[in-house]
Amino acid sequence: MDDAVVIGSGPNGLAAAIELTRAGASVRVLEGNDQIGGGIRTAPLTLPGFAHDVCSGCHPLGVLSPWFRSVPLAEHGLHWIQPPASVAHPLDDQPAVLLRLALGETASELGDDARRYEQLLAPLLRAPHELLADLLGPLRVPRHPLRMARFGLPGLLPATTFLRAWFRGERARALLAGCAAHSILPLESVLTTAVGLIFAVTGHVADWPVAAGGSQTIGNAMASYLKTLGGRIDTGVRVRSLRDLPPARVVLFDTSPAQLADIGGPVLPDRYVQRLRRYRYGPGAFKLDWALDGPIPWRDPRCLQASTVHLGGTLEEVAASESAVWRGEHPARPFVLVVQQSQFDPSRAPAGKHTGYAYCHVPAGSTVDCTAAIERQVERFAPGFKDRILARHAMGTADLERENPNYIGGAITGGVADLWQFFTRPVARLDPYSTPNPRLFICSASTPPGGGVHGMCGYFAAQSALRSLRRLPDHLTPLS
Ligand SMILES: Cc1cc2nc3c(=O)[nH]c(=O)nc-3n(C[C@H](O)[C@H](O)[C@H](O)COP(=O)(O)OP(=O)(O)OC[C@H]3O[C@@H](n4cnc5c(N)ncnc54)[C@H](O)[C@@H]3O)c2cc1C
């Protein structure tokens, strides 16, 4: 009997497996797909010679999360490529705003708001790794309460309220609105300023990187490290019930709360299962990948320096787009996230050609084809873009969910991260990674600190499982 089985090989499943094996446990990972990695996979979605990141494309937390910083993935083939700028946020009729590593350089893009931007960010950048360590985890007493208070007081406010009050001009407001929109919440919601600030902080600590060769190399490096530690991975094994599991003392679910309820239901109390079923997943995404005949012809060519481009114009426009999605609408001018991997990693496309990656948020379960709306937004800031398209690949909410059963209704970050569910995912418990059954744990992005490639959900879930493993008797019957 293995000490642990992990269901799912997404970044959190692999992080959990690595942590468990590092502590001496025997671990087996079961992955439903033929390819490992979950949200960190790369595939030839368009034409031969073009490598597209199926889900995650850009990885600020991949370089900055305390867990990723603790593992020797470079020795296992992971090479981050850092661009000259993290974000470009183009605006109509004026130069784009660029989020660059140097605070002063970014501030200099912001006109009259330069000093206010520096006043806001400088205190958060005094010990950014400590701040990130406090933020990327479950609700607990912060190790640096003063620093957290400095962050949390403005952070709690809705981005619309804070950004209008703090800044005078549209450039700074737009830059942080784009960062805040990663929350997939209406920008009128509390906590959205915090998300904007976290992403801005990361951009001042490390240029948001892409993985050389594709995001798949992140998963491959994690799997290679896991194997050197003695862990095993079986692919093509979709777990549907406890009977599908090999004997193990504990099981960690890198899955949605819904799957934990479906699979673990027979050994979990009804009340806990009902709470898992009340979990909210939130809006979905519509994603496009393009094979391009050349780089995106941005009106402001400096946009080519950034790994990520936020298309949505002013704070007002970004906020209107995100609120519309929450009302169940498809905005004509959606907020679009573009990643330009091949601009920095030539291995992604044949010489002279490029890949393009973009998605927008859509209502949960949407069946609307957003291709035209996304391409109109790109064309708005990059006239002539459509002429560069050689081929495109589209994924709606149903395609995303088919790719990965964790993306319920097309939700890509493990569920709504509003004030309530941010800390109580998947249900409110002192140890949210544990369940009432001391042999079952959840380690996916549906636990704190939520979506993104940072491995922290897996790390904390492994600690929780290790505490249980120490208490459990050696001889246990199979879970089913
Ligand atoms: C379009 C898109 C763009 C994104 N962009 C970014 C980005 O740029 N940067 C970033 O940091 N994050 C991004 N994300 C989010 C990021 O990919 C996820 O938050 C992250 O992958 C979550 O990791 P995880 O380990 O919790 O789960 P997942 O990555 O979802 O992995 C779960 C794995 O479990 C497997 N599985 C599920 N159920 C079963 C079962 N019953 N049996 C066996 N296997 C099972 C799945 O096949 C999958 O491989 C993006 C996501 C999407 C979809």
How would you describe the overall organization of this protein?
This protein has 18 helices and 16 strands. It has 480 residues and is an alpha/beta fold. The strands form 4 sheets. Strands 7-6-12-13-14-11-15 form a 7-stranded mixed sheet, sandwiched between helices. It has a 5-stranded parallel sheet with strand order 9-2-1-10-16, with helices on both faces. α1 (11-22) packs across α18 (456-471), α8 packs across α9 and α8 (170-180) packs parallel to α13 (315-326). The longest helix is centred in the C-terminal third of the chain and has 16 residues, at 456-471. The radius of gyration is 21 Å and the shape is globular. It starts with a strand and ends in a 9-residue tail after the last helix. The mean pLDDT is 96. Flavin-adenine dinucleotide (FAD) is lined by residues 7-13, 30-33, 38-40, 55-59, 61, 238-239, 254-255, 259, 285, 287, 359, 400, 404-407, 412-414, 444-445, 451-453, 457.
